[in-house]
Amino acid sequence: MTVPGNPRRLTRAEERRFEELSPFELKTQLTALAAEARLEHRTELLDAGRGNPNWIATEPREAFFALGSFALIEARRIWDAPGLAGAPQPDGIEQRFRAWAHTEPERAGVALLIAIADYGIAFGFDPDAWVYELVDGILGDHYPGPDRMLVHAEQIVREYLTAEMCAREQPTVPFDLFAVEGGTAAMCYIFDSLAANCLLKPGDTIALMVPAFTPYLEIPRLDRYDYEVVEIHANARGADGSPTWQFPDEEVDKLADPEVRALFVVNPSNPPSVMLAPATSARIAEIVATTNPGLIVVTDDVYGTFVEGFCSLMATIPHNVIAVYSFSKYFGATGWRLGVVAVSQTNVCDARLGALSDADKELLDRRYETLAIEPRAIRFVDRMVADSRQVALNHTAGLSLPQQVQMTLFAASAILDRDDSYKLATRGIIGHRLVRLYEGMDIPLGADPLRAGYYAELDLLIWARQRYGTEFADWLGANYEPVDPLFRLACDTCIVLLPGAGFDGPAWSVRVSLANLDDDAYFTIGRQLVAIFNEYVAEWRATVEGGRSPTVR
Question: Is 274 helix (H, G, I), strand (E, B) or coil?
């Protein structure tokens, strides 16, 4: 492998230095090399390294922009002067909305707005209060209130989560939602609040189900947290020896140790992109019920909509779960920064707060004493809201109102999509791309009802062993670093993939995002992987036939 403009091959020591980087930082290096190589090879750069979808949900966006027009009319009704308007008023606003919508029958988004208004009213919302929340929210002329989440927005998004994350089964105890700036902010707030509230202390033991989204691997090891990490490995194999990316019972049973204070899981996984097997969820629930009832389970379910019949741990063990959901991937909305944290109204975090030592309770009394006369009565989810603004700025906490309105429209549009046309379309997109990738690699793609398919994680060493034989695979592993194929792809073919090892996957695995490139690009990626490995095979054969050892790099 040579770098464009530099005929020298990278040494193994140099490649090992790159292996120490986060996969997303390594991606920056690979993208720079691919961009340079693109000029030399005069070919398209195919960046399958990041999971930003190349589709967007149009109808809820059309509704958002149409609602904005009506909101400005309402503002000007109160005060209309050059360059400024007043604040809308709730009295009679629902009827004025109906009258306006009647004059805009062909405008994109209006029909969905009417359906959403009708849905909320049928749900039991006061008509004026419901429409006013949307109108005032989209204008963004007030601080968020309530700070945790708008009243009607919370109920709509809760219904969406019930449908998509809980297989439409209403939980016995409702979940409280905290609207946040995407899954990224949710992760930061959860880690911060668990630490700030003495629920996780430095040196405590937590568990991670791996492979996992890299920040879940990196954050616990920061000096600020310094947790002991037990890894639960998805190392189950199918009959042919290929990974199923599921968790054997002996791995799950590590959670039975009460010293394990918290579990972090991405479900469906990233990068393998498969849902936890129902038997695994049931085994976790049994452990919680019998040997580790105080376990806090943080489950990140952003890819759940891509699996038919998906059921989150928030449905299986609601009392123990802090659930994270982001609207970014399903709706093509990474730039909107929309997410929620869901916590049951009766939950293990509040129970553990009540069981803290007197010294810890007094420490937390001082932390939250400006928020309530009885700070110990503040629930964990509300502490999280305050912590997100360093407590002192709790009075200005909360996700911006236009963001909450767009989130509500996304959720409501999905609820009203009775035949799941949007869901089936998005699943069809990534499903077809996965097929094309496997066609390019000339390997069969077996059926897996638990597969989300948003990413593909390919263990190239297992594939090499199956395709070219054990002797070749052993030679490859002994003489090349696992990142070498990534550098060859970037420099020789202008393709960027991520190393699976950076997600705590197998050393020779790679992650392919199936979300952000055109369908045929994935066939090309598969073909180029084969071509790269044919180069290795040619070198191996020359080495074997020549009776010599390969050059040590």
Answer: strand
What's the burial of 103, exposed, middle or buried (CB within 10 Å: 0-12/13-18/19+)? exposed
d(Cα 255, Cα 549) in Å, to the nearest integer? Answer: 46
The list of the chain residues with pLDDT below 70 reads: 1-10, 547-553
How far is Cα 120 from Cα 54, in angstroms, rounded to an integer?
Answer: 31
Integer Cα distance of 265 and 258 in angstroms: 18
Residue 9's pLDDT is 55
Residue 248 makes CB contacts below 8 A (sequence gap 6+) with 235, 236
The answer to whether residues 222 and 192 touch, using CB atoms and an 8 Å cutoff, is no
Per-residue pLDDT at 7: 36
Domain boundary among 334, 356, 371: 371
Residue numbers of the domain that contains 344: 171-371
Q: Is 363 in the same domain as 468?
A: no
Query: Two tokens at 54?
Result: 């190349």
Last residue of a domain, one of 371, 392, 420: 371
The Cα angle at residue 217 between residues 216 and 218, in degrees rounded to 5: 95
Provide DSSP, 297-344: EEEE-TTGGGSTT-B-HHHHSGGGEEEEEESTTTTT-GGG--EEEEEE
CA distances from 330 to 54, 114, 179, 306, 497 (A): 11, 23, 17, 8, 21
Q: CA separation (Å) from 243 to 267, 269, 458?
A: 17, 13, 9
Q: Could you give the CA distance from residue 184 to residue 177 in angstroms, rounded to a whole number?
A: 16
Both tokens of residue 521? Answer: 């690009």
Amino acid at 387: D
Put simply, whether the predicted model's pTM sits higher than 0.90 gets the answer yes
Residue 417 included in any domain: no
Q: What is the pLDDT of residue 334?
A: 96
Residue 396: inside a domain = no
Total number of domains in the chain: 2
Q: What is the pLDDT of residue 33?
A: 86
Q: What string of H, E and C letters represents the secondary structure of 169-202? A: CCCCCCEEEEEECHHHHHHHHHHHHHHHCCCCCC
Local structure of 343: helix, strand or coil: strand
Confidence at residue 153, expressed as pLDDT on a 0 to 100 scale: 98
Q: Is residue 540 a part of any domain in this protein?
A: yes
